[in-house]
DNA sequence: TCGACTACACCACAATCTCAAGTACAGCAG
DNA sequence: CTGCTGTACTTGAGATTGTGGTGTAGTCGA
C-alpha cells in the first residue's frame, strides 16, 4: 500500500472506499431494507461470504452500515444502513441515471424502458427515490 | 469470470465499471480537461502506467473517454471525456457531496466547511469548477 | 551532447478476491 | 427422534487483479 499521501481530499477518500469491489452492490441491496448475512449475500448476488464479511466490517467501521446481533446461537444478525449509508442513495441514483442515459451495453434495455413514462421506472426502491438526482442537480 | 448473469440491470453494469480501481480517479482528472498519458498519470497521482493504460482502453471501449493520437513519433496522445464521460460529473459530485456530509475521517475538514448551512453546499460544476478537486497537490 | 520527456509494452511480484469446506446450533419434515 | 436445511461467519489455499520497474524510439530544451 503506497497510500497515505492523499488524505487531503474527501472525494478521494470516498472513492477509495466506494470503489472496493461489491461495496456499492452491498449498499444498493441494503437500500431495500435491512437484511441478514446470507440473505444479503443472495441479494447482492455473486459475492462470496469471505469478501462480504470483510466489506461489511469495513463499512461498519466507516459508519455506513450498522450491525445488530439479534441472537447469537440461532445465528441472526441484521445489517442495515445508517443515516450516512442511506445518503448513498444519491450516489447510486446518479450512477443509475448515468447508466440509463449513457452506458452503451444497456441502451437496448433502456430504449425499452424509455417508452414508459419515467414514473414507471421498474427498479424503484424506497420512498425517497422520487428525484433521481437529489443532491446532484443539473 | 462467473459473472454475466446480472446483465439485466444497468446499475449493476455501471457499478461493475466504475468500481474498477482508479476509474473514478481518472474520470475526475479528465473533468479538468483533456490530458496526455503521462500528464494524466501525474494528475491522478499514484496510478502506474500499466494500470492506467488498461483502464483507458476499457473506458474507451465503453465510450467514456476518447483517445486522439496527435502524433505518433514524438508520442503525443490526447485523452478526453466523451459526452457520456462528462455526464459522470454528476456521479462524482454526488460522491463528493456525500463525502463532505457523511464520511467520518474528514469530518475534521468537513467541520470547517460545515459551518455553512447545507443549502450553501457548493454543487459546483462547469469548466472552472475544480477548486476542491482540481490539481492533485503533491 | 546530455539529459528529460512522450506513450506505452513486458514481466515478475504483491495485494486482493474467490472457492470450498467447516463450526455450532435451531427448526422442521418425516 | 433423525436427518436435512438454514444461519453467520472463519480459515486456508488458489485464482485474479493491480503494481513496480524497466525498456523503446524519437524529439526538445539547455
Structure description:
Two copies of one chain form a homodimer. By secondary structure, chain A is mainly alpha-helical. Chain A folds into two domains: 10-86, Winged helix-like DNA-binding domain superfamily/Winged helix DNA-binding domain (Arc Repressor Mutant, subunit A); 89-130, no CATH class. In chain A, 46% of the residues lie in helices and 9% in strands. Chain A is built from seven helices and two strands; from the N terminus they run ααααββααα. Chain A has helices at 10-18, 23-30, 37-44, 49-61, 83-86, 89-102, 107-114, and strands at residues 65-71, 76-81. The first copy, chain A, has a two-stranded antiparallel sheet. In chain A, β1 and β2 (76-81) form a beta hairpin. Chain A is globular, with a radius of gyration of 17 Å. Residues 1-6 and 109-138 of chain A have low confidence and may be disordered. The interface between A and B is large, with 57 and 58 residues. Chain B binds a DNA duplex (30 and 30 nucleotides) through α3 and α4.
Amino acid at each position: 500500500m503506497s497510500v497515505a499521501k492523499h488524505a487531503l481530499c474527501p472525494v478521494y477518500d470516498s472513492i477509495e472506499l466506494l470503489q472496493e469491489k461489491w461495496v456499492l452492490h452491498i449498499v444498493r441491496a441494503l437500500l431495500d431494507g435491512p437484511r441478514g448475512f446470507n440473505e444479503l449475500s443472495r441479494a447482492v448476488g455473486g459475492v462470496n461470504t469471505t469478501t462480504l464479511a470483510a466489506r461489511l466490517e469495513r463499512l461498519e467501521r466507516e459508519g455506513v452500515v450498522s450491525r445488530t446481533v439479534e441472537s447469537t446461537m440461532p445465528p441472526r444478525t441484521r445489517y442495515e444502513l445508517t443515516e450516512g449509508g442511506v445518503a448513498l442513495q444519491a450516489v447510486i441514483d446518479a450512477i443509475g441515471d448515468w447508466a440509463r442515459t449513457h452506458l452503451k451495453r444497456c441502451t437496448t434495455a433502456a430504449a425499452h424502458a424509455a417508452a414508459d413514462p419515467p414514473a414507471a421506472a421498474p427498479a424503484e426502491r424506497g420512498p425517497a427515490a422520487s428525484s433521481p438526482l437529489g443532491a446532484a442537480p443539473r
